[in-house]
Design brief:
Largest sheet: 3 strands, mixed
Number of strands: 6
Radius of gyration: 19 Å
Shape: elongated
Helix content: 25-40%
Distance between the termini: 18 Å
Mean pLDDT: 84
Number of helices: 5
Structural class: alpha+beta
Strand content: 15-25%
Length: 129
C-alpha cells in the first residue's frame, strides 16, 4: 500500500467508494452517507453495490491492484513477490520465500535451506525484479 493509493480512495467522489478484492470481497471502503451499512462476508463487494443501488446512494468503484490484493491466503504471497516493491516483498524474501514455476501456476514457497532449491523438481525463480 502506498500513500498515493490511499489518497485515491479518500479523494474519490461519491457517497460510497468501494475497492474490490480479487475474490469478490470488499478490500477498501469509504462511506460518506449516514444510512449506508457495511456488511463484510462472502461476495461483499456485490452486496455493497446492491445496497447503494437499493438506497439510491452514489457509488464510485475504485479499480486498484494494490487494494485488490490482500494477504489472507497462501497464494496471495505470489502477488506480493511478483508485483511488490516495498517492505512486504523485502520481508518475504529475507525469510526465504521464493517463486516457483510448476505445471499450472507460479507458487510461493519458503525455502528451508538456501542450498536446496529444486527438491520438488520445480524451477526456482530467484531474481524476480
Amino acid at each position: 500500500m502506498t500513500p498515493s493509493t490511499c489518497s485515491r480512495l479518500f479523494e474519490a467522489q461519491g457517497e460510497v467508494v468501494l475497492a474490490r478484492g480479487l475474490g469478490g470481497g470488499t478490500n477498501a471502503l469509504v462511506t460518506r452517507h449516514p444510512d449506508f451499512e457495511v456488511d463484510y462476508h462472502g461476495t461483499s463487494y456485490y452486496d455493497h453495490l446492491q445496497a447503494t443501488e437499493n438506497s439510491n446512494i452514489s457509488v464510485t468503484e475504485l479499480d486498484s491492484f494494490r487494494f485488490a490484493v490482500d494477504i489472507d491466503q497462501p497464494e496471495d504471497l505470489v502477488e506480493i513477490l511478483l508485483h511488490g516493491d516495498g517492505q512486504a516483498r523485502k520481508w518475504l524474501t529475507s525469510r526465504g520465500f521464493r517463486l516457483y514455476t510448476g505445471d499450472r501456476r507460479v507458487t510461493a514457497k519458503r525455502m528451508k535451506n538456501q542450498n536446496i532449491m529444486n527438491r520438488s523438481g520445480s524451477s526456482c525463480i530467484n531474481d524476480v525484479p
